Predict the structure.
Amino acid sequence: MKRGTPISEIMTKNVITLNTTDSLEIAERLFKQNHIRHIPVVSGKFIKGMLSLTDLLRISFADAVDENEDYVDTIVYNMFTIEQVMAKNLVSVNSKATVKEVAEILAKKEFHAIPVVDDNKLVGIVTTTDLINYLLEQFEN
């Protein structure tokens, strides 16, 4: 296994994001269309929070709707804003953090994605899935 591998090598760089002014309906559509579970919430390039699919499921029946279906009963979504539902006290890392450092954070915390932030700007996201895929690659070599 390569020691000191920077997280920038395995993170997702083209991050799908939400704005604080977007609706939860838009968020659900992004989760389903892109088959993802975490979306950073930004204002410009600055991260304000993280919304997870689990956050949405806590307030709705989003999982009961077919992912190919466009229409969703959004009554419950109109009762909340993204800012009310998203996680605000985020742990983030910079792109030079090592894979080991990020793995240690994820192993100790109760979340599954970490924003990667350089100079207060979002540059990527790393998830437990990214780490597992990286580890699997190590076994192939």
